[in-house]
Structures
1.
Amino acid sequence: MFTGIVEELGEVVAVENLGDAPPATAGGAPTRSARFRLRGPVVTEDAKHGDSIAVNGVCLTVVDTANGEFTADVMAETLQRSSLGALAPGSRVNLERPMALGGRLGGHLVQGHVDGTGTLVERIPGEHWEIVKIALPPALSRYVVEKGSITVDGVSLTVVDAADDYFTISLIPTTLALTTLGLKQAGDPVNLEVDVLAKYVERLLGRGGDGTDLRDIEEIKEMDR
């Protein structure tokens, strides 16, 4: 579990294509996986094999570490579902270690499980901050609410405005200077993770304890009236 407070702006050192993986569905085309080597002296100072590190909001498992760098295997599902497939040597990435028990929850509860990608649409600079507009998939818009929390490339942020196909965020100078969000341009993809609490609430409100769809029950009541 992470908090969305980026510890370090790291860098991709190398990307090794691991070749084709079995197709996800019968008859589907083979998909590739990859091994990433990333530089991050801060997050690797106490990291060891099997630990987790969030890379642009994606929870990855450390394979090994050496000289301030670590390697992680990235499966095909992750490459397809997130923007990690577009990374190349030299790309900057947001890095965060999991929150330790007893630590401060500076952002919000972040799983490191990306729900999809959005696209940076517009940057509107201000005197002391910057407003950024991000387009998002329609399937995720119902989880995004004004003044709610959302994770963008691993950064915990507060939603300023929420619409059906986009939302806006306000970035302070620290976020612009210390994360990839200060480098992104219009058209660039970003990883999005919505608040997991919203998804659980939706699930609980939609189904009863015995698995019955409560919406179906309401429809039956309407028919009986």
2.
Amino acid sequence: MIALGVGLSVLSSTVVALPAQAATVVAVPLAPVVETAREVARFWLADDAANLRNATPYTLRTVTGGERLSTEIVPDGPPQSVPPVEAENPPPGDLPATSGKVFFLGSDGLPHWCTGTSVQSQYRNLVATAGHCMLDTEAPGGGLGKWVFVPAYSEGTTPFGLYVGKQGIVHSDFDDIRDYDRDYAFVTVYSGVVSSSPDALTSVGRLGDNVGCQGVAVNQPLPPAADVFGYPAGTHPDGTGPYTGQTLERSTGSTFAIRPTNLPSDRPVGVDSPFTGAGSLGSAWVTGYASDTRTGYLNGLTISVADTDGDNRYDTGVSPYFDTELFLIYRDAARRWTGIITRIPG
């Protein structure tokens, strides 16, 4: 059950007791100044968004092994939640506009994508994704290059604009020692832009105002089921490739504790999901999802996938358990202001 009623006051209160060794927040600069952010936006939107269209799915740490467990996960503190926010003008259908693709340059210098989602924050400017879809873990030294978010991405389009990342907020244990129990990132983004001419950008407003925000829930019992929203691509081990990565996909499955065989993580969570790993890293696990409002509570983020029954088809998504440490990182990120990078129409 999700503990409701905490509300936005959580973002500025101290309702969560700090553990003996509290989370250390690491802020990773992405595009810290407006001039840099404009250059990043133009890079992705130039030539009819050619770099968005030509990006390939990120394939770092997409696959792990794992054994499903029947044990419960014990929370490290009281359950807490922050409620979602509906979009002002939601698109047709029953899929959330909050989900989209995060694009960036990998260590190879080429454009890649993961999945991300808009989450509740004071300034309606926050995106959640896997930590290694923001932090460059192949060449330690900061964030992945030219990081942006495109909500509701579909077939090369940017229906709600493009949002340049300003800062990525991560746990020090992921930054320092690659503890995959902390493989999550909350990225603050500037207000969105569209290309109004070959060299001009026009502001389209704040992310959360345009697409809504998922809530966040931590220290919850494992839910009976979660909806997973992402952009899977690539193939299963048997060679079949059911996903293109060009449109948002949804799967619904039960959750469980899992013991990974080659992932540095002590207490990850699994979900029944047929998503392939490439492209779906960072997929949102949403509990209590309502199709009429397209909102629920973010309670997991895909950091890898596994074939747990040995049939050569992926059947499980893997996420860190959302605990007090995650909530402290989220709460810090949710209070950070960003602003706009270009003119307002008119």
3.
Amino acid sequence: MATTSAAAGIATFWLGDGGANLAAATPYNVHTSASKVTIREDGALPGTKPGSIPPSPPATTAAGKAVAPATAGKVFFLGADGQPHWCTGTAVHSQYRNTVATAAQCAYDTQRDGYALDKWVFVPGYAGGAAPSGLYVGKQLFGHYDFDLYRDFDRGYAFVTVYEGVVPSAGGLANSGRLGDNVGGQGLAWNQPAVDTTVDVFGYPAGPHPDGHRPYTGETLETSGGRTAVALAPSLKGEELLAVDSPFTGEGALGSSWLLRFDKASGGGYLNGVTISVTDLDADLRYDTSLSPYFDGETQAVYAAANAHWSGAVLPG
């Protein structure tokens, strides 16, 4: 994604002029909705032994602080149209405390095979052009070749390693430490039961429903959730997707985290999906269902590749 020499310029692009480019970015609208989605009656998905990696807390936690997932935030980038856009992302546990999960179309340039989106950064807890927990420039993208080559949304997830954070400082930028130290990281779970598993969904929906109603602004972290089912979505080449009841609209919500066993007290859980699209199952012109890839052993293998990569700092010292 970005070399060390380019990372400082990318951070300045987003944080300069009081975060003007962050504030000007619009929610990404690539594959935000899917048509002709059906729920699979058998609910069976291939998989082997279930596995998981626990969440990791931040290095320090304010006593008595009300906990929403501090790991949630927005990923910003230049889209295939060259304009600034954003999706939802979440920090996940990793060896070097430097990894972000999101939807694949929020990291890959879907107009060019083998290319990542330009000027990619993660801002946990984003609000009003500010980066309260720092801004983290993407270093390396890890995804599945079936998405990169074939746009197969059964593999529509991405893990991105990021440099240590930066914040605005007098005369430029200052280092602000590792992502996982500052906000923690969600755990990861794979090969979990595909049917009737309860998940909490966290994201920043912003777009309209098909009837034009716009219930979300994209300015605040929203939550929904329910019990999972297995879905087919031919428009996404999706044969092994998960579905969950959710009123989220697609724009802005792409990349929303699906957390198993979410603990409100700690803000931690186990990432078991990311929103790749939404749909209107009952055809009432209101989105009612979010879709995610099923996290299996291949998902874990992609994550493991990201987990092995150290990033380092943007600035010397």
4.
Amino acid sequence: MIVRDRPSGLRMFLVVRGSVLQQIRTVLIVNILLATVVTFTHGALFSQKITLTAIPFTLIGLPLAIFLGFRNTAAYDRYWEARKLWGELLLRCRNLSRQCQSLIDFPVPVQPAQAGSDLADVRVRMVYRAIAFCHVLRQQLRGVDDRGEVQALLQPAEWQALQPKMGKTTALMQHMGTDLQHCLRTGRIGEPLAGNIDNTLSALVSAAASCERIKSSPLPFSYTLLLHRTAYMYCFLLPFGLVDTIGFMTPFVVGIVAYTFFGLDALGDEIEEPFGLLPNDLPLDAICRAIEIDLRESLGETNLPKPLEPVDYCLL
């Protein structure tokens, strides 16, 4: 995610970091070069004059802009829903830490836990599992595998049992439920209070499942393909429709139109998948780090990881 103050004036035109210009620069340059050639040849191709008027481009341009806007709105809905789900995960993890430490009775005094310890206290163990749950979900959504990051948060036996599991988030929640059931049977928590914690666990599972739904269900490919092809055909044919009307200004006008349409198309592709590693995707690393800091601090720890800061305006 790009994190920066809004530049003003001329600087707004010169900003590259966070712009889609890097993704579309090749096709944009080719389009402008074509428009330049068409301008010098006055729309002739192999000595054959290609005659086009502005009417078909007027008829196609407005619907194309509307449908590109609609697609980008649908893509942004996915992006914003994903951000709300990770906000929900942050909220539920904080609630889970508070509920475990205040509602579960444990006869042994609680000592501040450190990552890599035996985590003997069930309350501490559940809080660490919540941290591991968020890290595992982030890795699953991004298709990465950083085992050391999760291994330090779990007991050795639990970590070994987790390795063959395909659905590691489900397995972690199953272990949470098992510990909660044990606390209920041993009288460390009453049934109404256990129900409150179980509702929090269910909310975590629901948020994770919704993230997986967004990841596995992109916008229909045929719809994206149709808009992509139409935008490209429109922009590459546009010089032939403008050269007889505006003459030497054709490359300049074509460049502006092409930047808009190619940019909208590329922007839709980028925000449609909010869990990726591109500069405009969600900063899942920073969110997971914030969750880990909050939960470990709630356990009384002082040796905490540092919050992630933007690097070149990009927050991971």
